[in-house]
Amino acid sequence: MLEPGTKAPVFSLPDQNGVCHTLEEYLGKKVILYFYPKDLTSGCTKQACGFGELYPQFAEKGAVILGVSKDSVASHKKFEEKYGLPFTLLSDTELQAIQAYDVWKEKKNYGKVTMGVVRTTYLIDENGIIVKAFGKVKAAENPAEMLREL
Q1: Which residues, including other chains, have CB under 8 Å from residue 57's CB and lie 6 or more apart?
Q2: Cα 144 to Cα 57, 58, 116, distances in angstroms
Q3: Fewer CB under 10 Å: which end of the chain, C or N?
Q4: Is 49 an annotated catalytic residue?
């Protein structure tokens, strides 16, 4: 996990509509950049829907929410449409941002070791500096926690 005070690594990734986004385009705004393992799974759905419900309050505070996973653009589109998600989901199939933000880790599940995304949320300030970093976040609690941090 990257430390607060670190310059946030730049990226260029497609969203659920295939439109490319870069971190630079969000300079001047606070960014909540959250990494999650997989679209349409229970924990990831709770987290995404939580951000969706609180979205107007994040927008009032001038914050942008970006969700990132290694799922495809098409998978993100299904996720967005099924739950009416009002924010941007970025597809990182090549693990560009996932590795740059140090969230690709060894995970153990029922004794089996695999590599995957560890649920992590970063708060990035208007100048592109990481001001808060939360590792192994609880999916259901993360959106309210991030709103309090703003």
Answers
A1: 147
A2: 10, 10, 25
A3: C
A4: no
Q: Residue 56 pLDDT more than 90?
A: yes
Q: Residue 22: exposed, middle, or buried by beta-carbon count in 10 A (0-12, 13-18, 19+)?
A: exposed
Locate 77 and state its tokens.
């589109």
Q: Which residues pair with 64 in a beta bridge?
A: 31
pTM of the model as a whole: 0.95
Please compute the mean of the pLDDT values over residues 27-51 and round it to a whole number.
Answer: 96
Structural contact between residues 85 and 3, judged by C-beta atoms closer than 8 angstroms: no
Asked if 130 and 6 touch (Cβ cutoff 8 Å), the reply is: yes
For 44, other C-beta atoms within 10 Å of its C-beta total: 21
Phi first, then psi, for residue 143 (nearest 5°) are -60, -45
Considering 8, 23, 44, 124, which one is annotated as catalytic?
44
The secondary structure of residue 2, as a DSSP letter, is P
